[in-house]
Structures are given as C-alpha cells and as structure tokens.
Amino acid sequence: MYELHYDETEQVIFQVDPNGKKTIIANDSPSKPLFSKEKTKAIYITPLEWECTGNLYLYDLKTGHELSLFKAEGDKQVPKFASWLDDDHVLAIIGYGMGTISVGGNVYSINIHSMEKEQLTDYPNEIQITRFTVEDDTLNLEGIKYIDDELNQFVPYQEKIALPKRVR
C-alpha cells in the first residue's frame, strides 16, 4: 500500500510507495488529506488558498493513482471544503472562487465510483455555507448570512437538513 503524508511547514503532500520512495504529489498549498473509513482512499483540495481555483482529488492508497473528483470551472465552481460521507461518497462545498463575499457555497455529493455529482443545497449568494458535519442522516450546516444590501455585514447561519436517501 501507498502512504500519504502532509507536511504542514512546507505545505506539501507526499506519497510513500511500497518500496519507501517519497514523491511530492501536491506542492501548491493543498488541504490536509482526509482518509476514508477503510483507510484505502484519501481526498484533498489543491491549491486551497483565498481566491485560487483548486481541484478536489481522490487518491487510491492501494494503487497510488490520483483522480480528479471535481475540477474548478473557472472561478464560478471551486471546491472549498470536502469530507467523506461514507466509503463511496464525498461531500464538498462548491462556490465562487473570487470575490470577498464568496467565502463558502453550496453542498454537493460526489459518488467516487460513477463520478455523479448531486447538489444538496441551493442557497442564494446571501447565504454562504462554510462547514458541515454529518450526524446519522442529518447534514448540519454552518456558515454566514449577509444582512445588508452591500454584503458587508453578516450573522452566523446554521441549518440542519436531512440527507436524501439516495445519498445515504
């Protein structure tokens, strides 16, 4: 099996192959890899910086193969946060990559086998989801809600929604 390691100081991800050889696979400010429950796959976003258009990757620890789960579409559809739902699905926050008001986005489910993407939330620009957690069949959403017309002032935003049965 391959291994993935994150070097926070250097802000790189490197793989270690079965023979012990180290190779950098992401050197442009990637997120820390998150491993599937079975520890055979990992996901990460690179680059993950303010106003950068990163991509969401899936890394197979059995084969050492990397696959793009979500490629940024210009600056309109950029992955900003991702987490495992189960060993077959990844949840990701996708939103605008540029602009001071776009700190988050909407939540999508991605099937890692079929590559099928499903949008789970559809908020207006005034609501920006920045984090989520999953408890049983509930998606706990956190973010901000802008309360003025200039989108300068905001309050914390939270909501709980049921995960669709086809995603669970």
Describe the structure.
- This protein is mainly beta.
- The chain has one domain (3-124): Lipocalin (Beta Barrel), CATH 2.40.128.
- The chain is 0% helix and 52% strand.
- The mean pLDDT is 90.
- Pfam families: DUF4652.
What's the layout of helices and strands?
Layout: E1 3-7, E2 12-16, E3 22-26, E4 34-35, E5 41-46, E6 55-60, E7 65-70, E8 78-86, E9 89-95, E10 106-111, E11 117-119, E12 127-135, E13 138-146, E14 154-162
Antiparallel strand pairs: 1-2, 2-3, 4-5, 5-6, 6-7, 8-9, 9-10, 10-11, 12-13, 13-14
InterPro entries: DUF4652
Task: Name some characteristics of this structure.
14 strands, Lipocalin, 168 residues, 4-stranded antiparallel β-sheet, mainly beta, 0% helix
Strand order of the largest sheet: 4-5-6-7
Q: Could you say which overall geometry the principal axes of the C-alpha atoms support?
A: globular
Rg value: 17 Å
Roughly what fraction of the amino acids lie in strands?
Answer: over 45%
**Secondary-structure element string:** EEEEEEEEEEEEEE
| Tally of discrete structural domains | 1
| CATH architecture tag | Beta Barrel
CATH H level, superfamily name: Uncharacterised protein PF15525, DUF4652
Total helices: the number is 0
CATH topology: Lipocalin
Helix content: under 10%
Structural class based on helices, strands and sheet pairing: mainly beta
Distance between the termini: 28 Å
Largest β-sheet summary: 4 strands, antiparallel
Would you count the extended β strands for me? 14
Low-confidence segments, ≥5 residues, pLDDT <50? none
Mean pLDDT, all residues: 90
CATH class: Mainly Beta
